[in-house]
Design brief:
The complex is a heterodimer of chains A (about 210) and B (about 775).
Chain A lengths: L1 H13 L21 E7 L10 E6 L16 E3 L2 E3 L2 E5 L2 E6 L6 E5 L6 E6 L4 E6 L3 E6 L7 E7 L4 E3 L5 E5 L4 E8 L9 E8 L4 E6 L4
Parallel strand pairs in A: 1-16, 5-11
Antiparallel strand pairs in A: 1-13, 2-12, 2-14, 3-4, 6-9, 7-8, 10-11, 14-15
Chain B lengths: L5 H8 L5 H66 L2 H9 L2 H15 L3 E6 L4 E3 L8 H9 L4 E5 L5 E10 L3 E10 L2 H8 L7 E6 L5 H4 L6 E6 L2 E9 L9 E8 H52 L13 H28 L9 H14 L4 E10 L2 H8 L1 H18 L4 E6 L2 E10 L4 H10 L5 E3 L2 E3 L3 E8 L6 H17 L5 E3 L2 H23 L2 E10 L4 E13 L3 E3 L1 H11 L2 H16 L7 E5 L2 H5 L3 H12 L6 E6 L7 H14 L2 E7 L6 H6 L4 E4 L1 H9 L3 H15 L2 E4 L5 H9 L4 E2 L8 E2 H9 L1 H9 L1
Helix pairs in contact in B: 2-8, 8-9, 11-12, 15-16, 17-19, 19-20, 22-23, 22-24
The chains are: A mainly beta (about 210), B alpha+beta (about 775).
Amino acid sequence: MRRAFVFALFVTFAAASFVWAAGGVPAIAAAATPAALRIQVVDGDGLPVRDAVVELRSARSPAGPIRFPWKMGMAQRNLQFTPGTLIVARGSTVAFPNLDNVRHSIYSFSKPARFEIELYGRDQTRTHTFAVVGSVKLGCNIHDQMRGYIRVTDTPFAGKTDHNGYITLSGMANGAARLTVWHPNLRTPGNETASSITVTGEAQNHKLKVAMR
Amino acid sequence: MSPALRPFARLLALRFGTLSTRIAVLYAGLFALVLGGVVSLAAEGLSRFGEASAARDLEANARVFDEILDARARQMGDQADVLGHDFGFREAVATGDAPTIASALTSLEERVRSDMAFVLTLEGEVLAADARGVPAPETLWARLDAGDTRGIIASETGVLALAAAAPIEAPDLIGWLVIAQPLDRAELDRLVELAPIALEAQVAEGGTQPGWLRNAGANAVFERDIEGERYLYHVFDLPVLQDGIAPRLVLRHGLAASLATYASLKWWLTALAAGGIVLVLGLSWKVARSVTEPLQQLDEAARLIGEGREVSLAVETGDEIGRLAESFNQMVAAIEERERQIIHVGLHDGLTGLPNRKLFTEQLANVLSRRRAGEQVLVAYIDLDDFKMVNDTLGHPAGDALLRMVADHLKKEQPDALIARLGGDEFAVLIDGIDEKASLGNIADRLQACFNRPLTINGQAASSSASIGIALAPGDGEDGITLMKNADLALYRAKREGKANYHFFEPALDEAARQRRQLELDLRTTIRDGGFVLNFQPLYSLAEKRLTGFEALIRWNHPVRGRVGPAEFIPLAEETGLIVPIGEWVLREACHQASGWPANVSVAVNVSPRQFAATGIASTVLSALSASGLAPHRLELEITESIFIADVEQTLATLHSLRNLGVKIALDDFGTGYSSLSYLRSFPFDKVKIDKSFVEDLGTSGNGHAVIRAITTLAAALGMETLAEGVEDIAQFEVLEREGCQNIQGYLFSRPVPAEAVADLLRDVSGYQRQLRA
C-alpha cells in the first residue's frame, strides 16, 4: 500500500521532475483525514517562493519515528548539491554520493551539525548522521558556489514548496499549531519565521508572505 | 547727446592756451581711451581665461582625486576579500571563534595599514580585535546587506574613514569583513600629493560644513572669497557604507597662484599702455608744435603788420608750412605795393601824375617847418588862361593832353620845384631855399617863361599862356594855408589884370578880397530887402525920328557907400551866381515900368550869360510879361556873344524858346570878344548893337566908318536892325546915319534917367529933333 502510494506519487511527478528533485507529500493519514492545509509561500512581491521548508507543529505530536517519502541523500552532480534542500528527520543518516568527475569536499559550520568531509572522488559516497534539529548549510571547500541545505526536523508535517510556492500538509490534528517557514534566503535570524495557525480539519488555504533576501 | 558722451564733450570744450597742448591732450586722451579699453578688455580676458583654466584644472583634478580615493578603497576591498575568502577565517567566523577572528583581524590591520578591521555578522554582531570606535552595527547592516562594498563610515567618535567590505560566505553569507582607514589630515595630504595641481582636500560631514558649502551643488566648480583670497571649490558627495552620514569631499584650489602669471602679464600690458600714452603725448605735442610754431610766427607777423611794421617770414621748409610762409610774404609784399599805390593815388593826380592838393599841402607844411632863417619859400598858383576855350573848341581829350604837356614842361623846366596840380587847369609850384637877396622877379619870369611857347594839339595851335599868383614865406604868411590863400588872391589879381602875367601877393589884395566878401554880403541883403533901382536910357530910331525904347540899367543905392556902379557889383554878382535873382528882379521891374509907357515904346533888358544859362529863363520872362501885362514884342532881351561859349545847341534852343514867346532879341557889344559871323548866321537876331568902341573910333581913325558900314551892310543883308551905342557927339551921329545905322543910343540924346523921367523924355521928342538938327 505504501509502496503503491509512493509509486503513484512518482508517476504523478515523473513528468515534471527528477525523482530526487520532487517535493514530497506526507503520506501519513492521507486517507484518514481528507482535510488538508494548503499553504502558499510568497515573497514581498507576491511571487511564489520555491524550496521553502514549511513545518507544522501542534501540541499533540504523533508518536513514533518520522519517515519522509524521499531518499535521505544529497548527491553532488554538475558542481551542485542535489537536491539543494533536503528535509530529514532527526537522527537520519544522509548519504552524499559524488556523481561528478571532480572531487568534492563537504563542510558545515552550522551549529546542528558541524562536520567536515575531506575530498572524495567519483562514485564514492560519504554519510553523516544529523542528530540535532535545525538547518545545516553545506558547502564545498573548493567550489564556493556549491550550496546545499539540510533541514533536520522533528515533525512529520514538513515539506518544501513547489514551483508555485505551494505545499499541502495533511494528517495533522485539529487545533492550534505553529507554522515554521525556513529558506536559506529568508531575511530573518536563522532564516526562519514562525506563525500560529489553527488547523480546522477542513480544507484550508493559507498564504504566507515572507521577506526574501 | 547721450549722457555717456557728455564728459567727453566737456573735455573737447576745454580751453587750452595753446593749440599744441590741445592737440596733444586730445590725441593722447583719445589714444588713452582706446588703449584703456583694449587693455581692460585684455585684462578681463586674461582673468577669465586664467579662472576658466584653473576651474578646468580643478575639475580634472577632482576627477583624478575621486579616482585615487576609489582606487584606495578598491585596494582595501581586495585585501579584505582575500581574508574574507580564507577558509580558516570563514570557519572562525561561522563558528564564532572570537580569538581566531581577532588575531586574523589584527594581522590584517598590520598587513594592509588599516586602523580598523572588524567583522559584522549577518545577525548584526560585531567581531573585532578592538571594537572601540566601530560604528553601531545597525547603521552599517543595511548598506552592506544591499551589496555595497566601498564607502565612508564614521567611527563612534565621528572620525570619517574610507572603508571597504568583503562578504564572508560559509557558504551562505554570514557577515562582512570591513576594513577602514581614517581620512584624517595626514591621509588626505598624502592623497593630495598624487594630484598634479596644488589642492587642499577636506572630508567633512555635511552637517558640520558652513551653509554656503553645504548648499553648493556637488560635482561643480565654484568660486568663493575667503578672507580676501579667491578660491575655487569642488565638492563631492562621497559614497557611504553607513546610514545617517553625508560626508563630502571638499577640494579647494587657491586662485591667486594660478592667476599670478596672468596678473604679471596684466601689469606688463598696463605698463605698455602707459608707455604708449606717454609716447603719443610727446609725439603729438611735437607734431602739434611743428604746426603751431609757424602759426605763432604768423600770428606775431600779422600783429606786426597791423602795427605797420615791415615783416618777412623765414621760409625754412618746402612743405605746406613753408608754402604758407612764402604766400604770407607774397601777400605782405602785395599789400605794401597796393598800399603804396593807394597812397600814390590819394596823393597824386591821375591825369598828370603830379602831386595833388593834399600832398602839396603836406609838403608845403614840411618845407615851412624846415625853413631856415634867411630863406624864403615861394608858392605860386598857376591858372591856364582860356583853358575852357581849349576844352570847348578842341574837346576834353585835347584839354587833357594840354594839361599833361604843361605838367611835363613844368617838371622839366623847374626840376628843383615841387609841382602839383590842384584841379582843373590850376597848378601850384613850391620852391624852397630861396635866398633873401635872390631876385624874385627872375624866378617869376622863369615861371612865366614856361608858358610862353605855342603848343600844338592834334595839329592845332593852342595858347598855353597862364596867369601866376605868387606868395612868399615868411613875408606873405608863415603857414601853408595863409600862403596858399594869398597865392590864390595874387592869381586872382593877375587874372583880373589881363592874364598871361604874374602878380605877387600884396596886403592890399587881402583887403580887396575882404571888401569883395563884404560887398557880396551886402548884395545878398539888398536882393532880399530891396535897394536896386532901374534907370532908363532912350534908344532913338533914325528912321522913325523918335524914341522907340529904353534900355533898363540897374543902379544900387548902397546904404553906406551910396551909389554903387554896375561895373563894381555886376562882375561879383556874376561870379557868385547872385546875378540870377538880380536879373530876374530887373526883368520884372523893367516890364512893370514899360507897361506904363506908350504902346510904341519898348524896353531893353540885359541878360547876363549866367542868367541865360540858368534853367527857366523862358519861364522867368513869361512870368514877368504876364505879371506886368506888357506885350512881348515890346520887350527886348540883350545878350552878349559870350553865351555861345557854352553849349551852342543849348544856347540856340533857349534863344528859340524866347523868340517863340514873341520877345525881341538883340546881340549886345557886337564886334568885341570872339565876334564870329557864324553866330549871326546861326540865329536871326532882331538887332545888332554895335559896340561903343567902334563909335569912339569914328572920331579918331579914318577907317572907323568902314567898320560901321560893314556891320550895317551885313545886318541889313541878314535882315537885322543895327544900333550904335555910346554916341556922344553930332559928328558920330552923322557918320552913323550916313553909314546906315538905324538906331542910336548915347549921351548925345540922354544919360540914363530915373523911371519918373521917362515920360518927360517921351513928351520932349521934338526937343531931340531940335537938338539933332541944331
